[in-house]
């Protein structure tokens, strides 16, 4: 179980690199949404990401690349939105740009 107090049916806002690592390690399937408040496509994707959190067993994490610039650089995030999928602590997939819900659901299904 995650040590986070957040409700897994809602996206969890990542606070640090350590927080991200802990959440990825503690959960079977994780979707990480790298975003920025000024990013129009990120805003378009946000309702979809929230639905994924509510409707699947995947844990959805949100990383603000402006607040966590070093983390984003370490992960090689060059554009937003970038979505990373993890299965059992290992990165399994990376998608860049706005994705439709079906694409995200099928990726999560493949990892579950």
Jot down its keywords:
4 helices, alpha/beta, globular, Glutaredoxin, 112 residues, single chain, five-stranded mixed β-sheet, disordered N terminus
Give the CATH topology.
Answer: Glutaredoxin
CATH superfamily: Glutaredoxin
Nearest-angstrom radius of gyration?
13 Å
Strand fraction: 25-35%
Shape label: globular
Major sheet: arrangement of strands:
1-3-2-4-5
Helix-strand string: EHEHEHEEH
Helix share of residues? 25-40%
- Give the CATH class: Alpha Beta
Q: What is the distance, rounded to the nearest whole angstrom, between the alpha carbons of the first and last residues?
A: 16 Å
Largest sheet, in brief, is:
5 strands, mixed
Description:
There is one protein chain. This protein has 112 residues and is of the alpha/beta class. The protein has one domain (13-98): Glutaredoxin (3-Layer(aba) Sandwich). Helices cover 38% and strands 25% of the residues. It has four helices and five strands; from the N terminus they run βαβαβαββα. Strand 2, helix 2 and strand 3 form a beta-alpha-beta unit. The longest helix has 16 residues, at 40-55. The two termini are 16 Å apart. 35% of the residues are buried.
